[in-house]
Description:
This is Phosphoesterase. This protein has helices at 22-30, 43-52, 66-69, 97-104; strands at residues 3-8, 33-36, 56-58, 75-80, 83-88, 110-112, 120-123, 129-132, 146-153, 156-164.
Amino acid sequence: MATRLLLISDTHVPQRARRLPAQVWRAVDEADLVLHAGDWVELSLHDELAGRAAALLGVYGNNDGADLRAVLPEIARRTIEGIRFAMIHETGPATGREKRMDLAFPDTDVLVFGHSHIPWDSHSPGGLRLLNPGSPTDRRRQSAHTYLTAVADNGRLTDVTLVEVSPG
């Protein structure tokens, strides 16, 4: 049975945005599992997502305080439809990232990360897939706010799609 995934990170609510955009909430409603790669900023967003999402997996980020660190790990791992996922907020500089993450996450098929606010989809020399959804609320120097959707099905990650958040 396929699992519809929503990957988000760096929401920074309420610092960068008062709330998640309605488009993101619709994506939450459509997903079987939401993965949040840190920098929530306030526990209330975690609680709101946990109450609304069918399932939620998250980690804390560098902008998350003691309240979020008390309920979220630095690294989360879960096997979804036979795919070994890991998630962490920060992976360091882009240069050399794939080789570093191969060493840091040897028993992982897909690594979800955030921090940079820059969408990322690459494969390491060892076959690890690295995914960063960007940010749905703080695009920094990117052309758009973004998140990722994907489908995990029978050991394969398919339909990986970078979605731009529509203005308004």
